[in-house]
Amino acid sequence: MKIVLDAMGGDFGPAPNVEAAVSAAREFGWEIALVGRQELIRPLLVQHNTANLHLPIVHASEVIEMGEHPAQAVKTKKNSSMVVGMQMVRNGDADAFVTMGNTGGALAAALFHLGRIQGIQRPALSAVFPTAKGWVLLLDVGANADCKPEYLLQFALMGSIYAERVMGIRNPRVGLISNGEEETKGSELVQAAHRLLKQAPLNFIGNVEGRNLPAGSADVFVTDGFTGNVMIKLAEGMGEFIKGMLREEIMRTTIGKLGGLLIKDALTRISKRTDYQEIGGAPLLGVDGVVIIGHGRSQARAIRSALMRAAEAVERGVVDAIETGLQALPKLRPAIANEPS
User: How much is the pTM?
Assistant: First the structure.
């Protein structure tokens, strides 16, 4: 197993990336190539005991920053850590690519240098979401603001395969995000996608509403990238809001502080059940290679988890499974595989 880690990705620079790579290489024996500015990576690497570990540094002099225009940066910064890392996967020099950097940049670099799986019209960004019953997959969360029904059908297939092979969910339930559970509800896009999904060889349970996501009423939630992006950012904001309000009210009075001590263990358990660091990153599905994208605020523990997700996706053949799964879909709609990009 050889994984490329974008050592320059994330808000905190190379340090947490190097720490995560050392930890994962020591425990699992993988070769983890650290791609980025060697003058910044090497001093951090020598601070660790790396005896018998495979942690090569691949120099890349440029970085795609968070605020840059993704496509333009990928085209102009040809020696960026993202571009160099994606090229390693394309050339067969690595099995997967992991980054905590600019999400749009990762998407653009993957499309330019890996391309799409044959038959996939649009790749989908996914997000692993905590629920009352465990973790579920939501896609698309930002790659495709405007979608066709066929895109949502393919998102459902890719999400179902990932949920089963990597998340370990047998025969995952697929729900289509709408403004009502009835089959007649939703936009023209949703209604057309519903008709396609009813025919697909998937465990499609019908329309689901936004409230069904935290309840875990499905295992894979499918929507267009605009809606999914709004959903995931609203959820992040509400989570921070509730945590802040709870902390404020607990600290407001002496009785509140005493109560806070009494429920401290319960709050700790809740925090662990919803801790994104356990997941680390989510896949960019539909490109011809394993690409895992994590949050820019990730520290070493989360990055290590993202490396684990990458290894699982490689070991369980997610890319090949998607390519195989597509063979059943053109029978439903012959034009899918032949429509222009």
Answer: 0.86
